[in-house]
Amino acid sequence: MTKLLILYYSMTGHNFQMVNWAADEVKDKAEVRIRKVEELLDTAGAEDNPAWKKYLEDSKDIEVATSEDLVWADAILVSAPTRFGNVPAQMKFFLDGQGGLWAKGKLQDKLFSAMTSAQNNNGGQEQTVRALYTTAMHWGAIIVTPGYNDDSVYAAGGNPYGTSGTATREGLANDLEGAVRFQARRLVEVSDKFNK
């Protein structure tokens, strides 16, 4: 059974929702670990941001990711919001700290897929996913994209690199659930084939 690490950063809960859909989809097909990266901002600011405050409460039992989680995994699904068209500092800080594992070859041949959200349409979603893939390429990981292999990709907005959506105060604007579930399922299916 594939060991799937779902690694994420979320501030207002959008990417947390996405990883929960992904985990639910493959919970019977893979051994799943959900891990969040460490928050670098002062969470006292959540008192003035109801969505952040709610997310902190909802995710309080999720463990913070460690390098060991990456070593454990056969496949890694990353979900992080877009920050100015790029990967948020919290996720980048964690990924940049894996030089020791990379130097020992412990990250090569991991199956890797990514998804994201942004506050507005065309807010850098594709660029964020591709930036995450740049890190994976340096590791020697094997990138697994959803492509246009399921109708759910079109319903979610048609991003073949990785599921992406528009985050609003009311939630995720796109019809993302099906695309997230498809991407998680595809990653596990490819990993199962690869690791036979």
From TrEMBL:
Quote the gene name from the UniProt entry: wrbA
Q: Which residues form the Flavodoxin-like domain?
A: 4-188
Pfam families documented for this protein: FMN_red (PF03358)
**Any idea of its EC number?**
1.6.5.2
* Taxonomic superkingdom: Bacteria
Top-level class of the enzyme under EC nomenclature: oxidoreductase
**Keyword Oxidoreductase appears in the UniProt entry:** yes
Q: Which NCBIfam families match?
A: flav_wrbA (TIGR01755), PRK03767.1 (NF002999)
TM annotation in the entry: none
Molecular functions (GO terms)? NAD(P)H dehydrogenase (quinone) activity
User: Does this UniProt record's set of keywords contain Oxidoreductase?
Assistant: yes
Which UniProt keyword terms apply here?
Oxidoreductase
Name of protein: NAD(P)H:quinone oxidoreductase
